[in-house]
Amino acid sequence: xxxxxxxxxxxxxxxxxxxxxxxxxxxxxxxxxxxxxxxxxxxxxxxxxxxxxxxxxxxxxxxxxxxxxxxxxxxxxxxxxxxxxxxxxxxxxxxxxxxxxxxxxxxxxxxxxxxxxxxxxxxxxxxxxxxxxxxxxxxxxxxxxxxxxxxxxxxxxxxxxxxxxxxxxxxxxxxxxxxxxxxxxxxxxxxxxxxxxxxxxxxxxxxxxxxxxxxxxxxxxxxxxxxxxxxxxxxxxxxxxxxxxxxxxxxxxxxxxxxxxxxxxxxxxxxxxxxxxxxxxxxxxxxxxxxxxxxxxxxxxxxxxxxx
Length: 308
What we know:
There is one protein chain. The protein is α/β, with parallel strands linked by helices. It contains 13 helices and eleven strands. It has helices at residues 10-17, 28-31, 38-52, 73-81, 93-98, 107-117, 134-137, 142-149, 165-174, 206-218, 239-256, 263-274, 278-304; strands spanning 6-8, 22-25, 56-63, 66-69, 85-88, 102-105, 121-123, 153-156, 179-182, 201-203, 225-228. Strands 1, 2, 3, 4, 5, 6, 7, 8, 9, 10 and 11 form an eleven-stranded mixed sheet that branches. Helix 3 (38-52) packs antiparallel against helix 4 (73-81), helix 6 (107-117) packs parallel to helix 8 (142-149) and helix 11 crosses helix 12. The chain is globular. It starts with 5 loop residues before the first strand and ends with a helix.
């Protein structure tokens, strides 16, 4: 049964009760990741892609302090346009809910709320991880800790290119998080299909990924699975193209003293500006691709998942 603190949309509650596939979607990408109206257009399109793939979408957010699993069209619009929507990671959930605020959930907090609702597949754009310079700043995303302890498969286009990908992969190995790349041998880097790092594991079918999920949790191995899905080749920005833009944005963030949870929205927004909007097009394309894989994975897992 879903946790009593959650408010499930009727279609989500019905799908979960019937054992039908459900795909969780985050909301930070709506309120902090893209400009209006592209953000709400993207959110609605991604939900439709999930439906077309045979699963029920469940966009997750905090509205008036209530953790909502599945949003109406009006609630999506509110998230996309409201001027005071907090960026909510795990540590922020109690405060935002207690103060009755609106909040957009990150990868970590979406994972936790999805798990409480009984949802096993979650689609996002890119994972958080170890920030560049983390050896002195200690800036490491809570996404990694959450992956190590919450039983949800997270479909992404890899670690965000603005991060230290090598160190992020090392941390996930230390935490025991399986990292499996879909259909390719090289680990992707969000905007690009390549990163210079080999993928720790590879799988070529949603059915095989679903079997991994079942076996992992049947063995009592707590934590999630990072499923990486390279951006479609026709939509990618090469490492050379994106690398210079990232370096410039990172340098500007350091000059301005931008730190902590403010740095990722700043860097992603600045890269959109520096790329003339091309990075935003790539971001939207990879989220679409991830939604298609996420729906297929949710269907495949529903077919093999143990019944209560």
